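Q: Given only this backbone (263 positions), what sequence would you predict?
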């Protein structure tokens, strides 16, 4: 399988901590791209870097400086990776997520915000092969915490969703209820046919939160389905899974930021 024909990567960024003390020399995004490329074996796969366009409007000089720094660092530090710093982007994470769905040319894309580091090898060939085979395997989130009893109360459970081990697919997977903005791989067709239309329809009738918290908006839609058809049927609709189980499975990514600010 040639991954470059199956997968693209969306990397979302902005001027870090822009309203206070801008951290323009963003090391986090370099680690995010490098670690995902090396740990997942993404040779030849195209990375599309999106800067929140609201930063261009709010901080035009800083935006220009940030773009220049990113471009230079991509060329010098990531020259072996196909990274495209997009010229025209949209405002907020939600807008750029929509742009990626509308313009992606591969059947899958990996969604990354700029502050994650992959710390374990991930067999992407095998994962995509299984996603090709199983229609309901639409979204796989990569965990940054240990799973299971005694570790923490998972937010899928807290919000009343499903959280149980998957037994029918030959991958270490847990069935979950919600679409999160944490690192994940997703089917483009599912985004076009279900996630994006459901999101759009919901927010045509509900007041927008006016934020970039895409996962919180999608959680509201998923909760609506859980309440109307129950956890099991809602999971069939959403097809969301977590990579890993609660039998000793370690996290595969590490969060580098603290609400997108450098620690």
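A: Predicted residues:
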């Amino acid at each position: 399988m040639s991954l470059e024909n199956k997968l693209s990567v969306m990397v979302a960024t902005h001027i870090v901590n822009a309203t206070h003390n801008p951290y323009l020399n963003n090391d986090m995004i370099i680690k995010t791209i490098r670690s995902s490329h090396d740990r997942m074996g993404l040779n030849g796969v195209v990375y599309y870097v999106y800067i929140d366009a609201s930063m261009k409007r709010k901080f035009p000089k800083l935006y220009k400086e940030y773009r220049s720094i990113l471009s230079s660092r991509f060329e010098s530090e990531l020259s072996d990776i196909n990274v495209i710093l997009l010229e025209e982007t949209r405002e907020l994470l939600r807008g750029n997520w929509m742009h990626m769905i509308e313009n992606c040319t591969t059947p899958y894309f990996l969604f990354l915000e700029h502050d994650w580091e992959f710390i374990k090898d991930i067999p992407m060939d095998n994962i995509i092969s299984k996603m090709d085979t199983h229609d309901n395997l639409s979204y796989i989130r990569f965990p940054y915490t240990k799973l299971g009893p005694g570790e923490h109360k998972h937010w899928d459970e807290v919000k009343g969703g499903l959280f149980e081990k998957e037994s029918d697919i030959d991958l270490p997977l847990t069935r979950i209820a919600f679409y999160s903005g944490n690192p994940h791989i997703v089917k483009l067709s599912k985004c076009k046919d279900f996630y994006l239309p459901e999101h759009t329809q919901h927010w045509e009738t509900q007041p927008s939160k006016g934020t970039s918290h895409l996962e919180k908006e999608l959680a509201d839609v998923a909760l609506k389905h859980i309440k109307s058809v129950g956890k099991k049927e809602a999971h069939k609709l959403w097809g969301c899974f977590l990579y890993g189980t609660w039998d000793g499975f370690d996290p595969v990514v590490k969060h580098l930021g603290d609400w997108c600010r450098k620690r």
